[in-house]
Amino acid sequence: MHDTCKTEAAVPVNPAFKEQANIQHEHLYTLAAHDPQAYWNLQAQKLSWFTPYHAVMDGTFAHARWFAGGTLNLAYNCLDRHMPYAADRIALYCADELGGMRTVTYSQLLEEVQKLANGLKSLGVSKGDRVAIYMPMISEAVVAMLACARIGAIHTVVFAGFSAQALADRIQDASCSVVITADGSLRKGKMLAIKNTVDCALERCPEVKHTVVVQHSSLACSMDLERDIWYHDLLADVDAVCAPEPMQSEDAAFILYTSGTTGKPKGIIHAVGGYAVGAASSMELVFDVKADDIYWCTADVGWITGHTYVVYGPLLLGMSQLIYEGALSHPHQAITWQLIDQYKVSILYTAPTAVRMFSQWGDALPHNYDLSSLRLLGSVGEPLNPQAWHWYYKHIGRERCPIVDTWWQTETGSIMISSLPSIHAMKPGCVGKPLPGITVELVDDLRMSVQQGTGYLTITTPWPSMMRGIWADEARFRATYFPNDRYDRYVSGDAAHVDETHDIMIVGRVDDVLNVSGHRIGTAEVESAIVEYIAVAEAAVVGKPDAIKGQALVAFVLLKDGYAATEELAVGIKQQVVASIGALARPDEIIFCADLPKTRSGKIMRRLLKDIVQGNTLSDVTTLANQDALALVAQQWQHAQQELR
Ligand code: PRX
């Protein structure tokens, strides 16, 4: 693999942070290296089990079973077990773009979760049933997930920015019988009528028997009397006590859809016991959690970061945290700093795209606020480039707070690689080293180990929070993640670089998955949305570097005979993508072409389109069948860039 990476010099961690660090981690690395099962047993023992497990891990790598025989409940571990000492502790500070502020204590959360759990039971939901959640970032979203967990229903949260069609696809794939939603969701000053989106999706989903609707806005909301019920009405009529369902450790906890290299998103399955252990242990280690922390992770519950580091991780540890409904740019550009100042946030966990956006707004804004409560900064979802790292470190952390750049995936369930500031120095642009109990190896095209340099990032031993499969698609699971015949390693789909001190830098995806503002978008999904448009014959989508979003989508489009390339058509195509997937997948540019570069067997050569868009010299063109098409596409691209300027 081509190697152009060079890591930066290490930045030492502020000694005061190290002195005050809660956990001294060295011994955990030693234990995990010598006896991984003993290490994971130690971590699992921090949770409450109804019945003990008889083995820490058994089975094969691809189908490893963790804590088999043990029973537990995620909601019980997040709530009930904290009651003796933290009933009145604030679990959630809920803020929004309109200046709204509510607090929810652990006992209030427990009460509401039990009521909704009973409400779901009254609608016929039982253990193993699938429930879709399509919600804004409000406390009821957390309640909905935990209520499912309490009764053993499998939740599938769909980010509320996804379109009706994308929601319907996920509901159908998982055969959900109930949808929990709200009448509105606040975003950039607008209340979006998300119940309308649900109604539209459900036209295609007759298997959904009920929707539960949180009244959250003053928007008019049509209710189907047979199918829809208000959340407050459902909770008004139920018992306030609901015993937690004892779940087998290997029972499915949730499904979360993510993009892959085909047009169909993958329903990633996570299991109760292993997921709980991964979420709690990584939360504690990476964020060096302390009793008086006020934590803020800016992710939406619709993504894995929202699952593990907004809902389950913090609540498993009994933490207090802020959740924010809206965009970090609204109502004004300093809202993030205002909230940190107001709530005395001590840990901020956000995405590089947000850091780059803040830095573009200038250095002065954060300095107008008191950020002295911060003690640790985190980053996730895409490479935190050194420039953004230094800005975050200087202007937000004031050269006092360490930064943890955490690498992981929907599939890994919890953080796999991150420096731990109590023992490691930080390298800007690097994610650091694998956590205790996680073993990674870079390999080259010949599957040989890369000790220093660039290679494919693989994980070589099972870990508790690893995915348990793709919903209803075992073959795709094997082919995607365990592609070699020996099934002896998990293949992440990322390339990475490892340097002389074993620090890892993530290079990016090696498949046709793009990372736009930290959101994973499969190019095939966008392409199939574009070709649904009547005028389009073929499309190829590639990523171009973007100063804020990391990558932006560029679509090369071949029109059917009889259609002319116009601005209206480009707008129509973009709208088609928004309707099929959601605004997060809207291409930035549509480039109309007379032909697309193809191999002799007719496959579009996206690699060459990528070279054009990224300004690279063209890679190997020996298999290219239509040289002229390539030259024309390059011209079209140059022309479009000149127009943009
Ligand atoms: O390419 C890697 C990138 O995000 C992908 C996983 O996306 P998703 O499943 O949506 O989960 C995102 C949040 C965990 C990875 O394959 N990625 C994730 N974290 C980092 C990263 N790239 C660079 N640095 C990171 N810290």
Low-confidence stretches: none
Number of strands: 31
Radius of gyration: 24 Å
Based on helices, strands and strand pairing, what is the structural class?
Answer: alpha/beta
Assign the CATH topology of the largest domain. Rossmann fold
Number of separate structural domains: 2
Provide a concise account of the structure shown.
The protein is of the alpha/beta class and 645 residues long. The chain is built from 21 helices and 31 strands. The chain has two domains: 15-485, Rossmann fold (3-Layer(aba) Sandwich), CATH 3.40.50.12780; 513-644, ANL, C-terminal domain (GMP Synthetase, Chain A, domain 3).
Task: Tell me about this structure.
The chain is of the alpha/beta class. It folds into 2 domains: 15-485, Rossmann fold, CATH 3.40.50.12780; 513-644, GMP Synthetase, Chain A, domain 3, CATH 3.30.300.30. 32% of the residues lie in helices and 23% in strands. The chain has 21 helices and 31 strands. Strands 5-4-17-16-18-19-20 form a 7-stranded mixed sheet, sandwiched between helices. Strands 7-6-8-11-12 form a 5-stranded parallel sheet, sandwiched between helices. The chain has a 5-stranded antiparallel sheet with strand order 22-21-23-25-26, with no helix packed on it. It is globular and about 75 Å long. Residues 258, 304-305, 380-383, 405-410, 431, 492-494, 506, 509, 515, 520 line the site of adenosine-5'-monophosphate-propyl ester.
Question: Secondary structure elements and their pairing?
Answer:
Elements: H1 15-20, H2 26-34, H3 36-44, E1 57-58, E2 65-66, E3 71-72, H4 74-78, H5 83-86, E4 90-96, E5 101-105, H6 106-122, E6 130-134, H7 139-151, E7 154-157, H8 164-174, E8 178-182, E9 185-187, E10 190-192, H9 194-202, E11 210-214, E12 228-230, H10 231-236, E13 247-248, E14 252-258, E15 266-271, H11 272-287, E16 294-297, H12 304-316, E17 320-325, H13 335-343, E18 347-350, H14 352-360, H15 364-367, E19 376-380, H16 386-396, E20 403-406, E21 440-443, E22 449-450, E23 453-459, E24 469-470, H17 474-481, E25 490-498, E26 504-509, E27 513-516, E28 519-522, H18 523-531, E29 536-546, E30 550-559, H19 567-580, E31 589-593, H20 606-614, H21 627-644
Parallel strand pairs: 4-17, 6-7, 6-8, 8-11, 11-12, 16-17, 16-18, 18-19, 19-20, 30-31
Antiparallel strand pairs: 1-2, 3-13, 4-5, 9-10, 14-15, 15-24, 21-22, 21-23, 23-25, 25-26, 27-28, 29-30
Helix pairs in contact: 2-3, 6-7, 8-9, 11-12, 14-16, 20-21
Bound molecules: adenosine-5'-monophosphate-propyl ester.
